[in-house]
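Encode chain A's predicted structure.
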Amino acid sequence: MKNRSDLNQSYAAFDQASTIACVVELSSSSWLAAGTVPGVKRQPLKKLPAAPTGEGLLALLGRWRSEAEKAGSPIKRTVVAVEAGRDGFWLSRWLRDRGIEVYVIHAASIPVPREHKRRKTDRLDTQMLMRALLGWLRGEVGHCRMVQIPTLEEEDAKRPAREHDCLVRERTSIINRMKSMLVCLGITGFNVKLVKAAQKLAGLRTPNGEPIPPNTLGRLYRDMERLAMVRKHIKAIEDARVKRLKEKPDHGANPLVLMLAKIFGLGLETADLLVHEVLARNLRDHRAVGRYGGITGSPDESGKTRREQGLAKAGNWRVRHSALQLAWRWLTHQKGSALAQWFRARTADGNPIIRKKMIVALARKILVALWRYVTTGELPAGVVLKPAAL
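Encoded structure for chain A:
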């Protein structure tokens, strides 16, 4: 069993008298670095110039270390924290390669004032980040949570599934738009998804016997060209995935993808997305798996009030969407499994509202069961496997 990570609190001893703590507020034009330096009463705040690089930040940390040593405080530990955002993880990986202890703070985990119009500047943001970082380093719970820093290979492995998802959504949008344009003209029953649909557009007629207007016809031709290009890109991604799994079945997370793909009703696309988005992560336990997928509840309890606000939706929305779609397919392709029987036993009355609520619970149970399957090899009860994944 792999060691599970717990980024809610720090378990390392924190000696503030020998530790430089630095937080960096990143932006596209400049960086603002704030720190606490042992032996120095002031709290340094340095704005790095436009087009910042990691070298400038590294030089600033070296200068703070020299100031601390001159003040008689030898430095044994340097901690840098940034807020998760548009800049990704390149800076964190760059600093780690140079021996700096780096953490990425989950932006939504930092408590903020609940005033209607609260003050917000980069300076105030660095103060808030510093309070959260110091509390986390002391091992106190509730100050903030940290984000796992993926390697460049792990980050790149997510791209194909995410691009495939975007292209599928774009394909659906193009098809729906073309259908809407035809319906506005009173033309129904024409399948715009046919490969030779563009050749038949000129022969279509409205209920009045008129041809499609020229501007609308031009838009339909351009949309069909765009649809053909999107289909080409989708096929290229799918072919590249199959080729990668065949050539390197034991590389990286490919064994986990092939394990999931053997489950009847779970295809390569869903397996690839779930593995790289959630199942390959070192999550602590089954509760963390459900929370990361955003398919846990959000209770509202105060005094005598007891109500459920619905899904938290605070996790990875891609995992949540895939898990819900998989739950409906599970009922069709894994009818004899224990999870499917559990769902049918609780929705025997056929109430659609109950089914809608219980499908979320089924999605969470399936996600946890798949996590146990890829981590411990425990196959969910009654699940039917395919002879081969490919």
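The mean pLDDT is 91.
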